Amino acid sequence: MSFILAEAYLHNLDPFAIEFPASWTALKFVPEGIRWYGLSYIAGFVLAWLLFRWMAKTKRSTLPSRDAVTDLMFYIIIGVLVGGRLGYVFFYKPSLIWDPPLVGLIQVWDGGMASHGGMIGVALACIIFAKRRGISALHLCDLAVFAAPFGLSLGRLANFVNGELPGKVLPASMQSYPVSSPLIDPPWWGIKYPDEIFSWINLPDERLIQVDQLRSIVTDDKHFYQNVVTALKEGNAQVVNAIEPLLTTYYPSQLIQALTDGPILILALVLVWLKPRKPGVVGGWFLMIYGLLRIFSEIFREPDAGVALLFNAISRGQLLSIFMIILGAIIAVLCQRRDVQRLGGLLRPGNN
User: Could you tell me if 239 and 218 are in contact, meaning their C-beta atoms sit under 8 angstroms apart?
Assistant: First the structure.
């Protein structure tokens, strides 16, 4: 049994931007409220729509009108939601198909979206839209991946707010309980999660002895441990001083992936598309760059529950990213060889 003692960031963020009354949530299929997770998707879609409008207006895209941009955005939204949810179910949690039957498939508000599945959904949406409008599907995919970092990064920030997809334990600061050596201060960017207490109950853990000493401070035996967690999140000084040193410290993997999937990925794609490219080339580069960044960032992330590591070393996300890199390289090479007009170009439009 190991954990670390000392100061780090104690996660106390509320996943809800707005919570609905209990009378609403008692109704079937009504969510508990509006989460930052859902708002991150909306913000990503709005930023993508604005980018598409600008590229169409400046002739960096073959989209003919503002209405076409809005219609494409609608297709992409459906592709992200359906593809992301189905990807999560099939890649990470197939039990949602039957437990309860099919209900878990539509409960997007409870979390569970796979970026790899969302990309497949967007690609299919672009193909369908292109066939109906007579536009290059590869060019639409280039547009979609160019805007993707907005949603990817905001989604990771929402994961952090939710306290989900935690990172791995900081190995350099782990100690055994009880502690006989001096306290080791973890770095300030380490993350501690109050909800970890619930896992101690299931073990059970020796640290519960110190938690139980708070019964004179935190009342209501029926919900005692939940109340301790709530007191931690609300910053009760006595509870924090007693419990925070016992909590494990993790890598901030969500913030690392928000950085790699957002600013770093955007900068890389901007450099790729500074000059006009043949349709599909930007998409191929996106798959390669995102795949490499995802393999790196997954080093700091705890594998999803119930998903075994391949060869005890490669996570499911890393394995999917390897396939993405190979596919991206093939797409980039094949598209570069096509005898077609170059499009885009951030410095100078190529379709004038």
Answer: yes
